[in-house]
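Minutes, project check-in
Item: structure for the 508-residue chain
Input as provided by the requester:
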Amino acid sequence: MAEALTAPVAQRNPKRWLILVVLCLSSLVLVIDNMVLTVALPQIATDLHAGPQALQWVIDSYILVFAGLLLTTGSLSDRFGRRLVMVLGLVLFGAASLLAAYASSPEMLIAGRVVMGIGGALIMPSTLSILITVFDEQERPKAIAAWSSVAMIGMVGGPVLGGVMLEHLWWGAVFLLNVPIAAVAIVAAMTLMPESKGPGRPTDLPGMALSIVGTVALVWSIIEFPTKGIAGTWVSLLVSAMFLVAFLIRELKAEHPMVPMQLFRNRVFTGSSFSLVLVTFANAGLLLLLTQYLQFVLGYSPTKTALAFTPLAFAALVAQGVGASLVQKLGVRPLTLLGMLVLAAGSGVLASLGTDSGFWSAALAMALVGAGAGLAMPAAIGALMGAIPPEQAGVGSALNDTIQQTGGALGVAVLGAVLAGTYTDGMPSDAPAAARDSIAGAFATGDGALLTAAREAFTHAMSTTFLAGGAAVLAATVIAFFLMKGAKAATPEGIPAEATEPELAEAR
């Protein structure tokens, strides 16, 4: 029966690995840009006379536009062509980077970031949807692992590259870097990449409008909640709920919905989705927490801190390569479960770090986290995308991106609140307000006794936060165990849509 359900392998595109390089370049430019920006913020504040609120908008404007448009741009890529949409995104991203590089005011920089967010939203879903249409079932795990690895490369390489550039150039160079990368990716895409799209059908304009407003309101609420609480975000939360419920009703009733809601009836898709939300939730604050731990508690310089993340990136890259070769033998679910258990173990080791822990304890923890994420994330993404019909690859990729963006934003908000609350509770009641708010504020005082208290309070708060993140990963493991059965077989080429549950079981 398994043979009967397996479709013939289509002729492989001879340029597929070059196409993968283009897709990775297109994704890498987004990751590096956001990582480098965090290093450049102090210089931007000085040169543009930007206050804290303006700097926050430099970051949040991109996030809001990017997250709000993902579902819409994914649907448009299926409708009008994935290569076309990706190239348009690269053009916008490169042009907006030029605007940001030579911005003469905070408002001009924010405008550039808004357009960069639009470009990023056009690029990101298209890269994954093109990948799954270019690579067949046998090679797709390796391609997804390579595509996923660019996040790790950007995470470690971005701050290091940014630090080197800022030592010799002005802050605008971190945006100017995007222009040649985008130009190369555009030329390579037009030369190497075939166009692909879903069957022609009407564009769901009401669905797009509802999803944009609902998602933007939700992400805005998540961003603002840690500082404003429910009193300051209840209006945006209400708007988000109203529009997202209206979007759900619209998609269920529309003849040609933007998002095929029946996908959530597929237990593999649902299990992968919830697992990815919880894993990205748990990992969201990892970089921020460890950066502060390494700098303020262990006393590392910014450059040394960036280099200290090498064990995480190296372990992730190795695990992704190993996982890509094992997924065909072991299946998606076992690999995902193994990765999540390793990731949970890494969270446990992170929670055990103290004020006197050396680099090697942190390195071991980061290696476990990197290995776990490297095994679990590509496998879960592959399972999610495998449950989506090829003609809806664009919106399916956008769903994957939106799921991870939402999980990450929730993680930053919730785990950030846990960290801040636990840290403040651990500080002396007579400490200055700035010192009770953050460990950076404590260091600004220069008080030796207060710094010792701040290190201890932060380390305890970090441990509590990582324990909460580890609990989220274990919850994701349970969900994956029960819902991702047979995920290896859930690929568009291998199983027809009309296959019954007994047939699926036999195919497994």
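Outcome recorded: Confidence is low (pLDDT under 50) at residues 1-9, 488-508.
No further action items on this chain.
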